[in-house]
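As a warm-up, study this chain.
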Amino acid sequence: MNVSYCRFNFNGDCEYVLTQDFCFNNLSGTFRVITQNIPCGTTGSTCSKAIKIFLGNIELVLADETVKVISKRPE
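Now compare it with the structure written out below.
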């Protein structure tokens, strides 16, 4: 369920943008949250394999009970 109380189904092996402040005409956003989903179980359920949080030039990857910090150079 999201902040507007809507429920969404995430099907398949792919990534979805959960939230961001990037716009089509403004590519200089400051944050983005992405979930990397994979099929799991035998019931057709989808599980999050990782959550990626982008804050400026920092990427945080939450996966396998760990947090990886990736620092990227400014462009």
